[in-house]
Amino acid sequence: MRMRRFFSVFRAYPAVTMALVATVFFFTFSIPAAAADSTDVSRLFRIGAQKGVVVGLVFSPDSSLIATAGEDGHINIWKSSDGAKVKSLGEYESVNSLAWSSRGGFLACGVRARGREFVIDLWNVDKGKVEETMRGHKRRITALAFSPDGKTIVSGSEDDSVRLWRVRGGRQIAEVDVRKNDILDLAFSPDGDRVVAGESWSNLAQVFDLDREKAELSLKGHSDWVNAVAWSPDGKKILSGGRDGSLILWDAASGKQEMSSRKWWWGDVMDMAYSADGKYVAVAGQKGVALLWRADTFKLIDYHDLPKVELNRIALSPDNKMIAAGGMDGSLTVWQTPAVAGPEYLAAMAARLENGNDRVKENPSEAIRLYTLAAAGGNIGAMVRLGSMYSEGRGVGKDSKQAIKWFTTAARKGDPEAQYLLGLSYAFGDGVKQDDAAAAEWWGKAAAQGYARAKAKLEKKFVAASQGELDADSLRWAKKAAEEGNLKAQYSLAILYLKGGKGVEKNFTRAVRWLKKAAAQGKVGAQFQLARLYSQGKGIRKSMHDAMRWYRKAAEQGDPESQYRLAEGYEKGMGVKASPVDAAEWYGRAAAQGHPMAMYRLGISYRDGIGVKKNMATAVKWLEAAGVRGVSQVMYELAVIYSEGRGVGVNRRKAAGWFLNAAQRGNVKAQYNVANMYLTGNGLPKKPRRAAKWFKRAADGGSAMAQYKYALMLMDGNGVAKAPAAAVALFNKAFAKGVVVAAYSLGEAFYEGRGVPKSAARAMKWFHQAASKGHPGAQYRLGLMYDLGRNVKENHAEAVKWFRLAAAQGEVEAQYRLARAYATGNGVAASNKKALALYEKAAAKGHVAAQYYLGLASEEGLGVRKDPATAVTWYTRAAAAGDNNSALRLGVAYVTGRGIAMNRNSARRWLGQAAKQGSAHALFFLGYFEEVGLGGSANPGRARNYYIQAARKGDPYARDFLSGVDR
Q1: Which CA distances in Å does 232 have to 189, 278, 606?
Q2: Which range has highest mean pLDDT (30-39, 488-497, 697-706, 911-920)?
């Protein structure tokens, strides 16, 4: 309909120039220009508030001041109106939490103070002095909150406790143990009766009744740490935010989950706050975005971007006029809220809602409402958009008269777009009487301001061309303009030939032609695309030299992808002379613009000292920035850095987090590490089922060690159903990839008949495989089989050979067996000296039999000077570990006083232990004790019972003594 109307007007008014043609097309198909980001128009100020991370951020009760605290140990007070510094409080090692009482000028801070460790200091802000100090926490105090009446403070810590304190006097009045969970955030209920806490390892938010010192509700829904919690001012809702990026709204009475939201673009939820009137919720997204939600509908209404800043804290002023955010870089940023929004802010919000984006859902009707408010406040851009939306019937019923009203108002204020659109309305009689003179007048005013009416149709055609949505007429106009040197036309044609589209096939040669022309005019996108085609040899002869030449041109204009590719060229010597210094410089430029892979490569440069001075702290900074932005290659590297403390302190929690991130993105090494952590409980909770799951993933990904360990779990049914046959198959795979211990496990499987038919011959084959490749367990096993003649001909010399190899690797049983061989001369020349040396090695590792033989050697002087006291020492260690012979000899030592003072009770104790384990001699000695009454009255009956038991076990003395007792 519109196209037919256009051509009828063209025929009716032949004097209308081609400029009118262009303007009509522009009006019909125009896309509204993007409005300014509300971040720019509503920001009050941004300052560097702390050196390092802002860990605390609170408004004063009257909203006039803002307090910030940082890991630098300083508390700073700022004017909320302009960011002017008022004062600083304290000099601490670190400050980790802040809270400002709503009932007075008191500021509580959780600090680490030299000589006082972890305490809560209560500052009188006006007087600048500490009124109270609260002691009791054993680790970092991560969260604080005042009760609504200001009389108590609740604190949370990494020492797994939530504590309640009386403000006056600083006395602790309640404590709850949260079972190995760091407390990350706290909030009081409005009535002051309950507290909600965000926790780490449990991934819970918990509601506590501190008077009864117990948990009332556990709010389970997050899949990672609960970083932030907030209680609605009416007390009916609880909001929680997690490291998994989710926001969850809960019913505070029942703990039932009501609503949730999670989007990739805000990252981890780090902090949140309700407005005092309960209408809004502010949320700090770790990816540098402050979000504002409607509390009643739980819908996002606005957001503020802070590029290159990771947010950590957020607060809403008590008067509902300001929102403040604290960053990981120490910055403090303050904006106005919609409650006091000016027309520019309203117009920017409306523009977002009009068009929508990947963050805010399109809402034209709400955009109309906000544009109307902004226009009433004098915003000309809002007037133009209102006119366009009424003209198009977008978000409101089509109303040409309303469109003319707003176009006229803006045009009279000098806006060239409004003048141009008003001219179109007069040209077509849309909402007004058709009037060529009026149209020419308004177009003239717009043209005088540089508004290029003649290019309107062409440029619209170029947009269509670049999207592959054009007809023959559009293509003709685009080609003509391109030949005449129009940059947009040249670039649009090039992209059209690169992608192909309606009526046009892909043609790299033609694309190169137009890219060269556009690139020569300085078009960054054309320079990048031309470089890419040179590197691929598409449509042109492949030339890395030319590729790098064009990448440099685009890079010098600030294109981050071109900067990254130029850096790659310098790093690898592709098309340019290799230069680590130049590579690091260009990686740095791209990284500074947020290019994730450039951040990764720059981090590697600092880690290895390639092109820059080696600096692990800077390396970790860039590597973490890349990891946060989803670069999977860096996540495993970060995990290793934190697990080993390379250039940073060992941090098992961060290591575990990065291992998990890398594992979830398919990194096989990370999957193996995560599995080990779940298996051992080192860094992650001990959970065999999860360990088995991750071992299987890593095994499926080709990790030989994962195949071996998953096979062990399948063999034993640890965390997974038993499957011996599957385990054997995996042992074979792992051994084929060089895992020697898998051969040993295969030997055991054949020896025991688990998952395969029992076969001593095949067991020996696998034990030999593992032993010959240096596996100490297999070497010992072979030695034992040759020593005892199990499934092989007895051969003590061969046994000694394998024992010696295993013993050299620290295999304790092999050390003991080799010692016995030297002691007895079995398979090797006897040598008490060598036997003792091996006994001592095994005994030092807790080998009980070795400890016994060392005692025996000292007692009887076998290869060493007789020393009864040393013998008693070794007997005591072995007997305490349950050795029968040692207990017997220790009991005799206490009877005879050899090497230790006589002690009948100790004698009875150790002889009794030996007797319980079946020692005939111990039973005999106990009978003798009863017969002669040592340590008490004689008891012939008991003596006879002991002698009978000893005699039955073959003790010759017991038989002789029996006749004496019977007499």
Answers
A1: 8, 6, 46
A2: 697-706
Residue whose token pair is 């990350």: 184
Give the separation between CA 564 and CA 879, rounded to whole angstroms. 69
Distances in whole angstroms, Cα of residue 956 to Cα of each of 651, 776, 931:
65, 43, 17
342-371: buried (b, 16+ CB within 10 Å) or exposed (e) per residue?
Answer: ebbbbbbbbbbbbbeeebbeebbebbbbbb
CB 466 within 8 A of CB 459: no
Which H/E stretch holds residue 273? Answer: strand 269-274
pLDDT at 560: 95
Report residue 849 CA to chain centroid gap. Answer: 49
Written in H, E and C, the secondary structure of 614-651 is: CCHHHHHHHHHHHHHCCCHHHHHHHHHHHHHCCCCCCC
What pLDDT, on a 0 to 100 scale, did the predictor assign at position 224?
92
Q: Check pLDDT > 90 for residue 718.
A: yes
Cα-Cα-Cα-Cα dihedral sign, residues 568, 573, 577, 580? positive
User: Which H helix or E strand runs over 288?
Assistant: none
What pLDDT is attached to residue 18?
30
Ranked by mean pLDDT, the top range of 142-151, 419-428, 481-490, 904-913 is 142-151
Alpha-carbon distances of 130 from 127, 149, 602, 849, rounded to whole Å: 9, 20, 45, 64
The answer to whether 281 touches 273, Cβ cutoff 8 Å, is: yes
Side by side, the strands of the sheet bearing 129-135 are 94-100, 106-113, 117-124, 129-135
Contact 404, 412 (CB under 8 A): no
Q: What is the CA radius of gyration of the chain?
A: 41
Q: Where are the alpha helices (DSSP H) in 665-775?
A: 668-680, 688-700, 704-716, 724-736, 740-752, 760-772
In one-letter notation, the amino acid at residue 11 is R
pTM for this model (two decimals): 0.47
- The tokens describing 165, both together, are 């304190």
245 vs 333: CA distance, rounded Å: 22
The rounded distance, in Å, linking the Cα atoms of 106 and 127 is 10
- Rounded distance between C-alpha atoms, residue 911 and residue 920, angstroms: 10
Q: Give 671-676 contacts, CB < 8 A, sequence gap 24+.
A: 671/695, 671/697, 671/698, 671/701, 671/703, 671/706, 672/698, 672/703, 672/705, 672/706, 672/709, 673/639, 673/643, 675/706, 675/709, 675/710, 676/709
Convert the pLDDT of each residue in 154-163 to its tens digit. Answer: 999 999 899 9
First vs last Cα of the chain: how many Å apart?
133
Give φ, ψ of 88 to 5 degrees.
-120, 145
Q: Which residues pair with 262 in a beta bridge?
A: 246
Q: Write out pLDDT tens, residues 545-567.
A: 999 999 999 999 999 999 999 99
Tokens linked to 585: 């410089």
Within its chain, how far is the Cα of 522 from the centroid?
A: 41
CA atoms within 13 A on the CB side of 63: 15
* Length of the chain as a residue count: 967
> 627, exposed or middle or buried, with CB in 10 Å at 0-12, 13-18, 19+?
buried
User: Looking at this protein, which amino acid is placed at residue 945?
Assistant: N
For 814-862, the pLDDT digits (tens) are 999 999 999 999 999 999 899 999 999 999 999 999 999 999 999 998 8
Q: What angle do CA 388, 389, 394 make, to 5 degrees?
A: 145
Average pLDDT, stretch 32-42? 46
